[in-house]
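To: structure subgroup
Subject: Chain for Friday's discussion

All,

I'm putting the inputs and outputs inline so they're searchable in the archive.
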Amino acid sequence: MVPHSKTRFRVGNNSIIRVGGRVIIGFPLHDNAPFASLSETVLHLSDGAVIEFQGSARIAPGVSLVVGKGAELIIGDGVIIAHNTQILCNRKITIGKDSMVSWNSLLIDTDLHDPINGSGNSLRLTRRVLTIGERVGLQANVIIPRGLSIGDDSVVSAGTVLRQDVP
């Protein structure tokens, strides 16, 4: 793993970063440094969290990878994540090999609230992970919320707020 000097790591107890290839973090993609309006790249793993790079990957400046307690973020071989993208993983997010996430996108597998009943039990009936297939292109300013699945070889147009699965 090759982190740029403006990369900040916060790694909780028993959290793991698995690297299966050359992972470049915080360096401009194709000399497009002006796209990075955020000053640093952040990898934040809470206690027991896992980030697994299943091969080579490029993570541009200004990207935030935030993995919650006991959650798992899996990034396939050949994945590129462009400037200012935020990935907020509270359960599990998978990005398949050779996929690209363009700048200013948001991938989030939680809405950060979990309604409970009087006994303290969750009222949420289903908990689906966020899955992005192989060779998927997510164009600029895309928002992908929890529980969705994007099939192999798909392209999600710029500015889309995805509301349903893409086969």
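Points worth raising on Friday:
The radius of gyration is 16 Å.
Residues 25 and 59 are 5 Å apart (CA to CA).

D.
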